[in-house]
Amino acid sequence: MKRWTAWQNWIAVAAGVYMLLAMTWTVDVGSSNAYMLTGGIVLIVVGVINLVSTSRPVAEWVQIVVSLLVIASPWMGAFATGTPAVAWSTWIPGVIALIASVMALQPAMKGYREHHAVGSH
């Protein structure tokens, strides 16, 4: 896989951008803005790292973990109940990033095996 071509990682970056933009139209509840800001930035950074450094399954696993943390953030930040718009603005991009990250894992593992094949001696 070539650099900047993994559409799955572009989806994760877009999910992070959405989370940052969602802060402008959702009401700040508790620490929701902090979680949305942090989650959005980390999704963008990890997604760009995956776009630049291809065939790195470890980086894809990191993106999966970050996506899971984004999904869990409404409960961790205590804004999952009472204001569904804020929670949904975090859950939806988190789930989308998770699905895209899982879909990127297989091509990354295949590329890693092709570039790091164990030769016979």
Terminal residue distance: 28 Å
Main pleated sheet: none
Task: Give the fraction of residues assigned to helices.
Answer: over 70%
User: How many domains, in number, for the residues?
Assistant: 1
Order of helices and strands: HHHH
Mean pLDDT: 88
How many β-strands, per DSSP? 0
Report low-confidence residues grouped into runs of 5 or more: none
Rounded to the nearest angstrom, the radius of gyration is 16 Å
Q: In what range is the share of β-strand residues?
A: under 5%
Determine the number of helices (DSSP H or I, runs of at least 4 residues): 4
Globular, elongated, flat, extended or rod-shaped: what is the shape?
elongated
Structural class, from secondary structure content?
Answer: mainly alpha
List the helices and strands and how they pair.
Blueprint: H1 7-22, H2 32-52, H3 57-76, H4 84-115
Helix pairs in contact: 1-2, 1-4, 2-3, 3-4
Can you describe this structure?
- The protein is mainly α and 121 residues long.
- The protein has one domain (7-110).
- Helix content is 74%, strand content 0%.
- The protein contains four helices and no strands.
- It has helices at residues 7-22, 32-52, 57-76, 84-115.
- Helix 2 runs antiparallel to helix 3 and helix 3 runs antiparallel to helix 4 (84-115).
- It is elongated, with a radius of gyration of 16 Å.
- The two termini are 28 Å apart.
- 35% of the residues are buried.
